[in-house]
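SAMPLE LOG
Freezer: B-3
Tube label: C17
Construct: single chain, 359 aa
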Amino acid sequence: MGALVPLTRPGWVDAGRQLLAGLELAVREVNDAGGIGGRPLELLVRDTAADPERAAAAVEELAGLGVAAVVGEYHSVVARAAAARADALGVPFLCSSAVLDALVEEPTEWVARLAPAQSRGWRAYAEFLLGAGHGRIAVATQPSVYWASGTAILRECFAARGGDVIEIDVQGAGASAEELCDRLVEEGISALLLLVGYPEPAAAIVRAVRGDRRLGEVLIGAPAGQPEFAGWAGALGADGAGIPFLRYLPERLGPLGERVGKELREQLGEEPSFVAFEGWDSVTVLAEVLRSYGTDRAAVARAWPRVEVEGTRGPIRFSRTPGIGVWQWAWAPVRVVDRDPADRTGRFRILHGEGGDAR
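STRUCTURE (predicted):
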């Protein structure tokens, strides 16, 4: 089994480390249970470093090495390149974490995905903001298909409710953190979303807004999930708390999730993120496919709509979702959470979930 993971900069290394931990733990458990048909499952890991071309080349290399399937990747633009190459080569690809709706140009039988589609998660995030009374928000953006897609989803949701989304390109002229703060004041913004790279310029923007007395009531948000990882809290301390983000974990894990979470915690030396659970679930799904339907690539691809596996976050099954060209797990949990500013341990608070549940 091939694995695509961002392990070096400019990739989101915190996410890559968590994803790899989940993948590796699941592979060990598969092999401890006898492997696949009595043969050990081998994980061939390739570092994508958030580079689409590097990911596409890795898929081609792994195909040449005879892998039965490829799993992984966190960055949406990178996963899109990997999916395109996997489709062209006829290699099954189970995308673990990337959410971009348009993961492929045309519908394909070769690609499946565990992470919820961006439109689903970001609509829930927009509902949270609108429900909290934020009718006029700003997004600090950098050029990217992923950020542009997210902005479009927010605009659609806000326009339907009479709200406004102001876009501020932080790579354009007059894009210093101080000028950004001035713009927020001028526009009467009540919430600023960070649709930018991590750790920078996201951390610099947070510090600037937190340090500006004029913006004391402005909510900072990060729908892409930057505050999920320990590196965020380490870099920003108290400034990094109270920043809502999307998290793909249920309110409470079941027995399987609790057991896997404990083992991931021991392996990582820190709290496992939802990305680590996505990694574990990915290998567990593919292992079941390989056991039940064989290691032939075409057989693996045909199995997407037939497989059903108990994952750490609920039963996993794939279906076709309107507007999504890959086999999609349609019921991954979606929550808006933040790090509780009143809790020094970094406890996460659930602020909103699909259907409006919050506490």
